[in-house]
Design goal:
heterodimer, A: 79% helix, globular, B: 232 residues, alpha/beta, Rossmann fold
Chain lengths: 245, 232
């Protein structure tokens, strides 16, 4: 891994995005819009908004970074730029690190805007520090980037890659405890939810919501999300081949 | 060599002369791109010995010494040509301070200076190919492998590019240029004629014409095809 090449890759990804202001606007504003929407959905039940709002703050970065990365890396694979880069002295880790850095930065801005809106505009009642929330959001974004990179290897077109979103992300949203507490699910589903990384992302958010201090569960959640992200990144790296048929 | 279950290239033996423009000529689907990908080390399932600049094809030290231009332009359409070149220059390890000079020189060589800050995606197909070619010129590679670099370019530009190829060869760069257009063969110093995965001939254009008693390389190619099928 080489710092210059990693930073150059991150800068290149951000430059590509800078030519696409509409995507940036959508990335930053859609979470805000959805939070406001949710706030008024729970017009008569403000306490429910707290729990679901905090969970959504964990889900947004994962979903958006999954979409953005899967399409960006699919393009990289189909346009021949990946083949060209891998015929040059670029390590796979430089490429992956560059993407993770660029989208991580974007995720921090997105999470800051969404968290700020939730706390100050929509009065989300949170016991813990917003910085802890931001940290979970960042790791979620990393996980989304990792999953996106990985699934792009199994898609031949952009049509296919967007279909991975309902296939890979929706089950995790259903099982993460957003709709029903995970403990109340059918035991098999509960067991499945125990091995899905998004469950820990949402748990982490709820820990910050309920506790003023750093809890052991919060740390465990962070470690699980980070560990899953690194594992999936390693799997994603294995799908980048210098030699192809 | 296999691609899928099909044997694409069979029993090839050739050498590319240093500091010369070698043309890899033959009809589409004859295995040119597969051979090129084997040389630059992006093709899987290659058997036999393939040494490039004295090292096994695709080995790590070759990655900054061999430049490769794919048939379809492999550049970022959502970046400007200058931003594309700047990124690839940093990947090649060109130090930050020297990058602008390298980028400007590459842009000038493919005559893109006036479009350097347009979005690559909004330029014409020919301009995109030239951005892709400019990337390969960065960092002065020892071997430049170009897969159909002149397709769809206007005749003036095509001539300019061939002049550029020869200038590069004179300064010591080895070039391997593929084309399915036979009239481009006349512009090469040396030719490899490839058809259906077999090497029909490896010689200078002049020798090929004399040997087959043909007025053009295209006729020489046809004569060689007939000769080969007569043997079977």
């Amino acid at each position: 891994m080489n710092v210059t090449r990693t930073l150059a890759t991150a800068r290149r990804v951000l430059r590509q995005l800078s030519h696409d202001p509409r995507t940036i606007a959508l990335l930053l504003l859609v979470p805000v819009f959805l939070l406001v929407l949710l706030y008024y959905v729970f017009d008569a039940d403000r306490r429910s908004f707290d729990g679901i709002g905090a969970s959504l703050l964990g889900i947004f970065p994962l979903v958006t970074m999954f979409l953005v990365t899967s399409i960006a890396t699919l393009r990289e694979r189909t346009s021949g730029t990946l083949e060209r880069l891998l015929s040059m002295p670029l390590a796979k880790a430089d490429l992956i690190g560059g993407y993770a850095l660029a989208f991580g930065l974007l995720a921090v801005v997105q999470a800051a805007v969404a968290t700020g809106t939730a706390i100050w505009l929509l009065d989300l009642n949170m016991a813990g520090s917003p910085w802890l929330l931001l940290l979970v959001a960042l790791l979620d974004a990393l996980l989304g980037t990792a999953l996106g990179l990985f699934v792009s290897a199994f898609a031949a077109s952009e049509f296919q890659v967007v279909q991975f979103m309902p296939a890979v992300i929706f089950p995790q949203i259903l099982l993460c405890g957003l709709f029903a507490p995970r403990g109340s699910m059918q035991p098999v589903l509960e067991a499945i939810s125990n091995v899905l990384p998004m469950s820990y992302a949402v748990d982490g958010m709820n820990e910050v919501l309920r506790h003023t201090d750093l809890t052991g569960d919060y740390v465990r959640d962070l470690v699980v999300v980070l560990g899953s992200a690194l594992l999936v990144l390693a799997l994603g790296a294995a799908t980048l081949r210098r030699r192809t048929v | 060599m296999h691609r899928g279950t099909r044997r694409v290239l069979d029993d090839l033996s050739f050498a590319v002369e240093p500091a010369r423009v070698t043309g890899l000529l033959g009809p589409s689907g004859g295995g040119k791109s597969t051979l090129i990908r084997a040389i630059v080390g992006t093709q899987a399932k290659v058997s036999g010995t393939l040494r490039v600049l004295g090292r096994p094809a695709g080995s790590a030290p070759l990655r900054s010494r061999v430049a490769y231009v794919t048939q379809s332009p492999s550049v970022y359409l959502d970046l400007t040509p200058r931003q594309n070149l700047d990124y690839y220059a940093s990947v090649l390890g060109i130090p930050r301070k020297e990058r602008p000079a390298h980028v400007e020189r590459a842009l000038a060589e493919v005559d893109l200076t006036s479009h350097a800050d347009d979005l690559t995606g909004s330029t014409s197909g020919g301009q995109r190919s030239r951005v892709s070619l400019a990337v390969a010129l960065l960092g002065a590679p020892q071997l430049l492998v170009l897969d159909e670099p002149t397709v769809g370019l206007d005749p003036v530009l095509r001539r300019d590019l061939w002049d550029l190829f020869h200038r590069l060869a004179e300064s010591g760069t080895t070039l391997l240029v593929s084309s399915h257009v036979m009239d481009e063969a006349e512009r090469c110093d040396h030719l490899l004629l490839l058809r259906e995965g077999h090497l029909l001939a490896a010689d200078t254009p002049e020798n090929l014409r004399t040997r087959t008693n043909a007025p053009t390389v295209e006729d020489a190619f046809l004569a060689l095809v007939d000769e080969a099928s007569a043997h079977h």
